Amino acid sequence: MTVRCPSCGRHDQWPQPELGCGCGAVLRIPVRPAPTLPARGTEPAGSVPGASALSPADEGPGGPGGHRAPRSPLRSGSPHSRDAQASPEGASPDGRGSPGTTASCTPPARPPFRPLTIRTARDAVTAAALYLKWLGFRDIFQSPEHPASGIDLRARGLVAQVDPRTEPSTLRDVECLWLHGLNASAVSVFFSLTGYAPEARARAEDLGLPLFVMDLTGTPQPANRAADELIGTGA
């Protein structure tokens, strides 16, 4: 179908392979959960096994059983924006659980991480590669120095950028990395030696993009919740 992008006004056929527009807007398709089937033998007399009743909200313009068009499927920003969810009983608002409760993700058993001292920009990339391997990613490929794409490390299901500059990484840096990960259907991970601008941190939080800060000892430290979760679950 033809959809107008609300950000740049472009009219084009959707979905495209990347489900996105050149301006950065992406297509988010609403998904309705499948109806729960009644247990065998519990259907009312005269009913069709597996059939479920439609509420008035489910009835489209064509009457019962019709399909209602989704509202504004084209959204600007991240398709990974998290809806508000109720915290499980006993969990704290930050999702890490309260004392006496069991964490939802048990960190996998790993040997202690052995960092690489950082003396050059290339050392920073190598240290990040070692850390990702420690997390469980395999066959990590290092791009040539200063790649035009900004992607320093690649693996199956992974793209990573390492920023060795002396100023904080920017909002544009975070968004460009996220778009590369979206295009490759991969996890995006950012490493910075200096940290992140406040707007870059906020955007990474919205996108669920893990941020790490590295010191000169070569030991990455998580800088947001997504990074904590990646450490907990591994690759």
CATH architecture of the domain at 121-233: 3-Layer(aba) Sandwich
Coarse shape: globular
Gyration radius, rounded: 23 Å
Lateral strand order in the biggest sheet: 5-6-7-8-9-10
Beta content: 5-15%
Mean pLDDT: 74
Note the run of SSEs as H and E.
Answer: EEEEHEEEHEHEEH
**Main beta sheet, described?**
6 strands, mixed
Discrete helix count: 4
Number of strands: 10
Helical amount: 10-25%
Look up the CATH topology of the domain at 121-233: Trna Endonuclease, Chain: A, domain 1
CATH class categorisation of the domain at 121-233: Alpha Beta
Q: What class do helices, strands and sheet pairing give?
A: alpha+beta
- Distance separating the two termini: 37 Å
Low-confidence stretches: 46-104
Protein name: Restriction endonuclease type IV Mrr domain-containing protein
Organism: Streptomyces candidus
Region (Disordered): 34-115
Describe the model.
The protein is an alpha+beta fold and 235 residues long. Among the domains are: 1-31 and 71-77, no CATH class; 121-233, Trna Endonuclease, Chain: A, domain 1. It is built from four helices and ten strands; from the N terminus they run E-E-E-E-H-E-E-E-H-E-H-E-E-H. A six-stranded mixed sheet has the order 5-6-7-8-9-10. Strands 1-2 form a two-stranded antiparallel ribbon. Helix 2 packs parallel to helix 3 (198-207). The longest helix is centred in the middle third of the chain and has 15 residues, at 121-135.
Please describe the topology of this protein.
Elements (H helix, E strand, L loop, with lengths): L1 E3 L6 E3 L12 E2 L46 E2 L45 H15 L5 E2 L10 E3 L2 E6 L7 H14 L2 E6 L5 H10 L3 E4 L5 E3 L2 H9 L2
Parallel strand pairs: 7-8, 8-9
Antiparallel strand pairs: 1-2, 3-4, 5-6, 6-7, 9-10
